Amino acid sequence: KVKKVIMSENYLAPDYAKPIQAVDDLAVLVLSEDIPLTKKAVMATEQQMRRFVTEKSVVELVGYGIRTSSENKLMGRENNRPPTKLTSNLMSPEMVTDFYKQYPNGLPSAFKIQAGSFGIVQHRELGKSQLCNGDSGSAFFVEENNVRYVLGLTGQGIINNPCPPPETWFGSPSMSWVNPAFVLKDLIKTAEKIVEEDKKIEFAQAEAVRLAVELKAKQEGDAKAAADLKAKQEADAKAAAELKAKQEAEAKAAAELKAKQEAEAKAAALKKTTITCLKGKLVKKVTAIKPVCP
Asked: CA–CA separation, 230 vs 207, rounded Å?
């Protein structure tokens, strides 16, 4: 998902009817999430691009465009074409200027080269690396040590019928020029600042959520601890009350037993007994609480 589109303040849309050539037709998209990459991609600097020119490094482009003008009728429909890898070489801005000097009538105003533009030779006469309709927006890159150095995007060029049928070639060499990617550095810095600010906001939001979760967990923990303490206190109070009731019951039972024993002892003490007294030949029975023979 695209969150923001950052365009150059100098952007000028093309109008081939007037004609007006596009200026700084480049943009940086800030996405909502990273795109998984199998290879690292970086913007090539001007020094690196000039080195690629000197070393005649292989420039690659993966396009989904049509391959000949006879396929133009397929444009605008669902694209089921497999990607095609195009290869060529990079030319410096000075070489691009010299290249177009072969046109005796000069360049139409609609195709004036933006200053600093590098060029891509399409080698149509060799039957390869043809840029056609539908390839626009693809990136030219040079791959070194598993790193892709992005040079720029496909651009409009003076090409005398951009995609002729294979059996027809008009004899004029052709070229597509590109706005070098390093002119995007200010836009990229702006995008990086936006991404950095977004990350700060996302971190702050995540931190707020984390703190809220921790606070809720603490509050729930404190509430549980308070409930457990209350339950323990109530259980202790109940146990104490039961112990007191038991002790009081035992004390009452002991008192009742003591009273019973004392009553029984008192009753026993007041009970009359009879004894038999003998004196000579006389026998006499005496009954009393504490009987004594006379």
From this structure: 34
Comparing CA positions, the residue from 51, 229, 250 lying closest to residue 151 is 51
CA angle 28, 31, 37 (to 5 degrees): 95
Distance of alpha carbon 46 from alpha carbon 184, whole angstroms: 12
Rounded Cα gap, residues 228 and 84, in angstroms: 71
Distance CA(209)–CA(76), nearest Å, equals 46
pTM over 0.70: no
Q: Is 205 left (phi over 0), alpha (psi -120 to 50) or beta?
A: alpha
Task: Provide the greatest CA pair distance for the chain.
Answer: 185
C-alpha R_g of the chain? 53
Retrieve residue 151's tokens.
């040079």
Contact (Cβ atoms closer than 8 angstroms) between residue 4 and residue 195? no
Decide: 276 and 292 in contact? Cβ < 8 Å. Answer: no
No. of helices (H) and no. of strands (E), the chain: 3, 12
Tokens of 99: 């290249």
Q: Look-up: residue for tokens 């936006």? A: 194
Give, as one character, the DSSP assignment of residue 20: B
Looking at this protein, which amino acid is placed at residue 279? K
By the 8 A CB rule, do 118 and 155 touch? no
Element (H, E) at 199: helix 185-270
In one-letter notation, the amino acid at residue 2 is V
**pLDDT one-digit tens code per residue, 81-136:** 677 777 888 888 888 777 777 666 655 544 556 667 888 766 544 455 566 667 77
Q: Is the dihedral of CA 227, 231, 233, 237 positive or negative?
A: positive
CB 132 within 8 A of CB 156: no
Which residues, other chains included, contact 192 with Cβ-Cβ below 8 Å and sequence gap of 6+?
none
